[in-house]
Structure formats: C-alpha cells, structure tokens
Amino acid sequence: MEWLQQLINGISLGSIYALIALGYTMVYGIIKLINFAHGEVFMIGAFIGYISITGWGLSFFPALLLSMAICAVIGVIIERVAYKRLRNATRIAALITAIGVSLLIQNGVIYIRGAQPAAYPEVFANKTFNLFGAQISTQAILILSVSVVLMIILQFVVHKTKIGKAMRAVSYDAEAAKLMGINVDNTISATFAIGSALAGAAGVIFGIYYTKIDPLMGVIPGLKAFVAAVLGGIGIIPGAVAGGLVLGVVETVVSALGFSLWRDAAAFIILILILIFKPSGIFGKHTREKV
Amino acid sequence: MKFKRAWSLLAAMTLGVGLLAGCSDGDGDKGSASGSKDGGDIKVGVNLELSGAVASYGTSEADGIQLAVDEINDDGGIDGQKIKLVKIDNKSDAAEATNAAIKLTTQENVSVIIGAATSGATVAQAQIANDNKTPLISPSGTSPTVTVNEKGDVNEYVFRTSFIDPFQGTVAANFAYNDLGVKNVAIYADNSSDYSKGLAASFKEDFEKAGGKVIAEESYVAKDSDFRSTLTRIKSANPEFIFIPGYYEEVGLIVKQAREMGIDVPLMGADGWDSPTLLDLAGADALNNTFTTNHYSADDPDGAVKAFNDKFNEKYGKSPDAFNALGYDTVYLLKDAIERAGSADSTKIKEALEKTDGLDLVTGTYSVDENHHPVKSATILEYKDGEQVFNTKVNP
User: Which residues of A fall within a CB distance of 8 Å from B196?
Assistant: First the structure.
C-alpha cells in the first residue's frame, strides 16, 4: 500500500502548509499585504513551544496554547510597528518592509541563540498503527486533528462572530466599513493576532512532527504556504486549506515518483502555472471591476 | 573532513600581520645533553586551528601531538635527537594558515610541519611546503584534494594521517557485504554535498564489485526536513540495508522517520554522523542497528589503543577522541620516517614518508599509496542505546 502511505505523508505535510497559509491569506484578504514575516512568526512559535516543553516542563496542549498566545502578541506588535504607518503607502513599500521584518527576526534569533538546530523532545509516546498496510503514527493523527480543529474554529470565528463580521466588512471595503462604525485598526490587529496564532501552532506541530527546528526554518515553509494561498485563491480561507493540502500531496507525489530533488521546484512551478492560467486561484471567482 | 574554507578570504586577508602570531614552545636546549649525533633538536612546526571556528579539532590534535612528543623525548628522542615543537595558531583561517607556514619554513627553519586539521587550511599551505621542500603532514584533512591538486598532480611534500573520504565508502561497502551479509541495498545521499556524493559513489562501486546489488538510489538536499515520501519509496523496494552518507542534521531526521515507517534494516553512514546532536534528533531507540565508519574508537580492544587511552587519560584526565588519536599518530608517523631516513633532513624525511609501509598506529595500520593517500584500516562503530560501541576494524 505504497500509495496510501504516500497520501498520508502528503496530507500530514499539507496540513502544516495549510495552517501557515491561513495566516497569509487572512492578512492579504484584509489589507492586501503579502506578509513575508509570517514564516518567521511560525519559527518563533516553534521555539516558544520548544522552550516551554524543555525549559518549563509544559505538556503539549499548554505549550501549544502558550505559543499561540505569544505569537498573537508578536503578530500584533509587528503590525503596529512596521506596517501600520505604511497602510496608505504603495503596496511595494509594504512588501519590502515585510521582507525586512522577516530578515530582522531571523537574524535576531540567530543573534540570541546561535544558528545551530535544536531537537524537539518527544512529547507523546509515539505509536505506529497499521492501516491497510500503511504506517500511520499517533503524531501524524494528532497533527491532522489539531490542524482540522483549528481550521474549523477559524471558520466559525470568521463567519459567526462579530469580529469575523468586521473582518469580512473591512476586506470588502475598508472605507465603507469605517463609515459604518467599524474600528478598522482593531480589526486589522485582530486579523494579525489570529493569523499569527495559527502560525505559532503550526510551528509547534512542525517541531513535534519533524523534530528539528532552527532559526531559518520559516523560510521554505513560509514560501510554500504563500504558494498554497495563491493556489487556493489568495484571500479565501477554504482556498488556503485546499491549496496547502494539494501542495503537500503534489510534493509527496513528486518524491514518490523518484524526483525528490524536484519537490521544491514543483511547488514553484505550480505557482507560475497558476499565475499564468488562473491567477484568482482554485476557489477564486472572477470579479468584475466596479466603476 | 567537511571544511572547505572560503578561498576568497585568502586573498583578502593575506595582508594581515598573522606572521607575528606565533608562539614557540619548549626551551629546546636539552637536546645536546644526551649526546646526539649532530647535537641539535629536530624542529617540528605545528600549524593548527587552536582558536576560531574549528578550534576543537586543532586543540584536540595539539594535545595528542604533545603527548606523543613528551613520550618520545622522555624515551631519549629519535636517534638521540629530541623533538622541539614550534606551535602556531592559524585561527581556523586559510590565510592565517598560509602565513604560519611561511613563518615556519622561512624563519623557524623547521624540518617538517604538522597541520592543519581541516582540508581547506592544509591546501592553503601546500604550495609553500612544495616550494620550500618542507614536508607537511595533515592529521585529519580527509579531502582527496589535500594531496592531489585539481590538475591531478600529487603535492609532492604533502602527506596525511587520516584516510580520505571515498575510502569510508569502500569500507562501508565491504562491511555491509562481508560482515552484515546483505546483498540488496539502497543508497540515500545528500545531493548538495560533495562529501556525501563521493561516499555514495565509492560505496556503490565497491559494493557492486563485491557482488551485491544497489536496488534503489535516492537523494535529498541539505536542510530538507520531510524525508517520509522518499523513505516510503525506498521501503517499497525492500532493501536489506540503507547507506546514508550525510551530516548529522539531516541523518538524525532520516533515521527517526525511517524507523517510524517501520524500516528496521541496518542503516549505515560515515564520520559525518559523529555528533551528540544526532542522538537528540533521532533518539536512542531509532539509532539501534545503525553503523558508522570512523577513524578510531576508544573501545577498540587492540593493545596499542588501550595503552594510548591509558596514557592520554593520565595526562589529560579524559578519554581521547579521534582527533587526539590522529594528532598522536602523526608524530609517530614522523618518527618512523625520520628513523628510516636516518636524518632529520626535510627531503630525506619526505622520501621516507613516501615509502611508509605497514606501520602500526593507534588509528590502524598505515601504508601510503602513490597519491599520498593512506591505505589504513577504519573502525566501525555501532550505536547501542545511544552509545557508540566499537564493532570491528575493517582493512582496505
């Protein structure tokens, strides 16, 4: 059952991409900013989880929640310090700032602790189940379930709560939302907080599933999550999840066919193809320009 | 081993005043007291990484060298002549290593230079050794380019104590085929590292020559973290053994993920695995039934190794590592050459070094081939519950 095994591998990888992609897509949906520092928030989340498990002896769920909380705060700080002033500047200025913030965080972490990798401790006794001849570990199951639960919660927040309503309103038309009495600044901060919390959770999950974390770990998953967001249709929440899963499975299939050196290339070829043929993404709708 | 120093640094830093960095050691006037033939000492330059990025290699080797020199001198020296060391710190920098070599050959007039620990810093001195006809022995430079330059010419005056990288592939192939008795194997190599690719190629060549079959060859790239899909592919080919020549950062994850997927066959690698981080990443359980080739093991039951261990322990209060042993062996390699040459003349030492044959050292029996590559045995270590345990010694 090699194919079933590969599917499991692909979905596990994809659900981590999906969690990171959710933050990208939310921020883009609201202020049209590609937040390249998002991958670094993911990295910080992984390190907070690591410190709280090895240093403070927390178990998995408290560590996950703590990491999400701290990342939410960091996300809001990044927004307030680096992006808020640029809200009416050109999009390219904000994008360049995002890249700058990303480099600042990477090198800041290297300055504090050095560039050497750290190994995540084993927080669960990892058992492996046999499913129709494929091996599935308790870790993989847990990662999938945490990812799915967080995505459902997010969907609930966006569609059923007041802040979610405000987010949708701001993303539709920020000026009009302001006229309707919505506090746009707070809504944007809330978006950054939620997106960063998800990135933090993804960091902890990544650490547990892949063991090795280091200060530059956010770069490639960050880019892949960006591809996933574009693939699903940037700004669309279910699109980010679908894009992440598709990307994870595609990468796994590429490796499974024996082209493991091409897996990163495959992700970016997908990005190029989607930008050429359907720039609005899988879930994107053709929107008519209002005059 | 794994260090190719940036050559660009060399040009930028040759202007530095590194020439003044030396510090000589020992009082040097005892030699004549023992009534030696020509009354002088044998001046040996030591050009090692005593500070900087890879200082741990250099200082380990310096400890081994010092131990051997003290032993020889206490024993009356070589043919009555005592060894006098002139130590220079090359600060783990290729340009500094060049400066140090110039100082040792032109100002100190040493008979021979020991060092550097890394391949890059040794290559940086090769031209100076050749020009000044001073033999240079690197204890641990494992890249083939240390003794054979890009044009394929042998650096006449450059030698080394450690084996070269591709040799570990050969040793692993022989061990897998003869000792583990496996016939169908897989190779999973790091496509971004010359070290890994070189080992994989030599493993494949020798394993197939021995009569085995490589049924799967896969690659990864350094900094990857997801190996599960490729491991699934390897698993479905049903190999009896997997050769993974890489560095510990990725190997740790590969071993862990392979065991999680139910791959229980023996896994094997080379000295790139040798780090405590490997144990953190993979976990002790996953590392059971894995093997590595290395220069030396402190557990080796061989008598010479035991004696060396005891002496080292007594002097430094700790158990020696591979670099301590290589530094120690380098001095004995030199002693053997000087004794056979009957003189401490540089050219005669070089000629004697070229004829070294079957010399018993702590890190194995040593002979030299026409490319100045050692022909020597390698040690196989096995991981048992997170500890490296001596398994066997394999001859080429």
Answer: none
Name chain B contacts of A217, Cβ cutoff 8 Å.
Answer: 225
Q: Name the region of B288 (left: φ>0; alpha: ψ -120 to 50; beta: rest).
A: beta
Q: Say how many CB pairs under 8 Å bridge A and B.
A: 73
Nearest by CB to B229, from A9, A216, A261: name it: A9
Taking an 8 Å cut-off on Cβ atoms, the answer to whether A13 and B226 are in contact is yes
User: Could you tell me which of B234, B253, B218, B357 has the C-alpha nearest to residue A263?
Assistant: B218
Distance (Å) from the C-alpha of residue B363 to the closest C-alpha of chain A? 30
Structure-model confidence comparison of residues B22 and B46, the more confident one = B46
Q: Under an 8 A CB cutoff, do A9 and B218 touch?
A: no
- Where is average pLDDT lowest: A34-43, A100-109, A197-206, B314-323? B314-323
How near does any CA of chain B get to the CA of A211, in Å? 6
Contact A260 B225 (CB under 8 A): no
Amino acid symbol at A198:
L
DSSP secondary structure, B31-96, as one string: GGGGT-SSS--EEEEEEE--SSTTHHHHHHHHHHHHHHHHHHHHTT-BTTBPEEEEEEE-TT-HHH
- What are the residues whose beta carbons fall under 8 Å from the beta carbon of B372, sequence distance 6 or more? B147, B148, B154, B155, B158, B159, B160, B354
Minimum distance, in Å, between the CA of residue B251 and any CA atom of chain A: 11
Beta carbons of A211 and B221 less than 8 Å apart = no
Please report where in the chains the tokens 């620990």 appear, as a residue: B117
Q: What is the largest CA-CA distance in chain B?
A: 72
| Those residues with Cβ within 8 angstroms of residue B47's Cβ, 6 or more apart along the chain or in another chain | B88, B90, B97, B100, B101, B104, B113, B114, B115, B116, B121, B125
Per-residue confidence (pLDDT) for residue A288, from 0 to 100:
58
Helices A38-54, A219-232: crossing angle, 10 deg rounding: 130
Q: Which residues pair with A114 in a beta bridge?
A: none
Q: Is the pLDDT of residue B18 over 70?
A: no
pLDDT of residue B225 exceeding 80: yes
Q: Note if the bond before B116 is cis, omega within 30 degrees.
A: yes
- Is there a contact between A211 and B260 if contact means CB atoms under 8 Å apart? no
What global pTM score does this model have? 0.79
Angle of helix B94-102 relative to helix B119-131, nearest 10 degrees, comes to: 30
Neighbours of B310 (CB within 10 A): 10
Structural contact between residues B116 and B122, judged by C-beta atoms closer than 8 angstroms = yes
| Cβ–Cβ gap A212/B261 under 8 Å | no
* Nearest alpha carbon to residue B78 among B112, B50, B49: B112
Q: What is the DSSP letter of B178?
A: I
User: Which residues are B112's β-sheet partners?
Assistant: B44
The C-alpha torsion from A261 through A263 and A267 to A268, rounded to 10°, is 0
Q: Evaluate whether B38 touches B74 at the Cβ level (below 8 Å).
A: no
Cβ–Cβ gap B230/A117 under 8 Å = no
